[in-house]
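Good day; I would like, with your permission, to put a structural problem before you. What I wish to show you is a protein chain and, alongside it, a tokenised description of its three-dimensional fold. Please examine both parts with care and let me know of anything in them that strikes you as inconsistent. Thank you for your consideration; the sequence and its tokens are set out here:

***
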Amino acid sequence: MYAVVGGGIAGLAAAYRLQERGHEVQVFEASDEVGGLAALHETAGQPIEKYYHHLSKSEETIVELAEKLGVGDRVEWRIGENAYYVDGVVHPLDKPWEILAYPHMSLYDKFRLALLTQEVDVRGGIPSFDTYDDLTDFEDVPVDEFLIEHTTRGVYDHFFEPLLDAKFGDRKGDVSAAWLLGRIKFRGERDLLRGEVLGYLDGSFGVLLDALVDAVGRENVTTGARVTNVGFADPRVAGAGGATVAGGDSAESADPAPDADLRGPVETVTVETADGEAVREVDGVVVAAMPNVLEALTGYACDIDFQGAVCATVTLEEPLTDTYWLNVADEAPFGALIEHTNFVPPERYGGDHLLYVASYVQSREERNWRDDDAALEERWLDGIADLFPDFDPDEDVREFRVARNPRAAPVYERGYLEKVIPYDLADAVAPGVYYAGMASRAQYPERSLNGGILAGFEAADRAAEGAEAPIDPAVEADAGE
């Protein structure tokens, strides 16, 4: 039996794939619900994710899995309209004439920006169509230097810099150009007359999660179950009864783990539930969680830095704007406003209008992290009113729900690929240890639900094969889009 630590989409995908390969599996999720960052809020109609989610056309594996699980007909492709709030004005930026009318960049700036988004390099006056094919060429290039060189100073100052501030805060100077290029590739298809084509599931991404749990078997998924220890055979006595050595403690703190060369294969996991602790014999363990959990259980340290996220789901009486995604180039206390019911019809939510207010945080000392929910609500709603004077929090807001996660996304800094955690940790930790969390290769250069599924599949395939296997180039390319 294989143990999967974590019941997010990567863990469920790993369990599903292991079963496909003929193995028994048990998923252990520490919280009370599966889904991770795709966990749900209830509404007056269909549920909605606590953190905004959608698909890009480049995300093919998740769509294929939905088809295989019998919910492919729930995948819908819709237009997600984008706009930019600058100097008190909402500027739509989807249709060619809207982009041409945007007053904060010159015509030449827009020309250079358009070519970059089409992955055409015109430096030197001769167009090149393959400059950006290999993202690793830009892994060590600062994103600001790249943008100024490959577009214009105006494009950086008046378009990208506010977005980088909202995404990475004071870490923006550390970010790699490979991340930006990967995001451009990842975002995928646009309808030139309407906007970006994005995907969503009728009923929320919970439909896919439920289908995965059903496929794995609800008896094989346990919530409220924290894996607190991984036991390894002692190679000095493994042939004489398989004594074990402790590989970690709780996910909050852990003693230093033994050196990997003193370990034999994984033998057990210790699981803590409301009923107490139990030790389970296993053939291997897939850690589909954040790197701090992997380190606590095995001693394997990851150098990737993560940023937190604070995301409020606001139920409104009336729509705030007529766009889906509003980037804010303003001294607002949040980074973006994502009006979900301008993407998915409000009728699915009992007629309510649902707005995400979102901010990344680089430190727990930031006010957006330190404020309690009541203080955050007051400050953020006042911030919306500053942008939109007709907005009245007392009259327009019916509910304000806050979700927080201290490790919501990596900081894609220069040299990131050197820090990625391998899927198979036999050499670094012990045979039988696999990783499918957000610090895996499939989640580079942008994290996504699709990347989570790819990571789960890759870790499961290596576990099933019992040894490190080469990555399928097609799968690697898909993960990098």
Summary: The mean pLDDT is 90. The first helix runs from residue 9 to 20. The CA atoms of residues 147 and 156 lie 6 Å apart. The chain has 14 helices and 22 strands.
